[in-house]
Design goal:
The termini are far apart. Helices cover 45% and strands 16% of the residues. Strand 4 (123-128), helix 7 and strand 5 (155-160) form a beta-alpha-beta unit. It is of the alpha/beta class. It has a single domain, classed as HUPs (Rossmann fold), CATH 3.40.50.620. A five-stranded parallel beta sheet has the order 3-2-1-4-5, with helices on both faces.
Amino acid sequence: MDKNYIGTWEKSEKATYIARKKRRAIYAGSFDPVTYGHLWVIQWGMELFDELIVAIGDNPSKKNVFSKEERLAMLKESIEPNGSSWMMLNKKDSMEIVHCQLTFDHYDNQFLVDYARKMDAGFILRGLRNVEEFSYEFNMARFNSNMKTGDPLMKTVWAPNTADSANLSSSFVRSICGPKYWERRVEGMVPPPVFKRLLEWQKQKTTS
């Protein structure tokens, strides 16, 4: 951190720094729809932070398949502690107790670093699927922690995805829905509550 910046801290910035001693992180995405890759990053974050805010971010230039309310419902249903999705993710006989406060939120048409600062979060959690993504994510991390474009106190933490979810994304899931026997391929990529909604989405498309 720039020592000159430390010397020019205002009282409000000092208060923000003290508040951030609690390890609060933001994990943001479109979650359109939620995949097992998303759930793995959330689990990883819950094991690392005291508080994790999973935020649905909307870009005005993108058209989402599912509404904000539907995506929020999918997240909550998929992360239910006693749900099958979470147990499948853990792949254990019993649940591991994780002491993390998990909350859900929504933001739109603003930079993620501004939203994180507003929520007094000191960390931005990002999933890293493959090497090709690193260049973009690295530049965004520098942008978010830059004194002029972001917040010098903001830290980015990358969660490298497992081999099973290295190329798994919401857009990929949507792209393979529709052709014959697509259900067999997609069912293993998303939690049951999400798969149910994808079935309903495809049914509406074929009947409209």
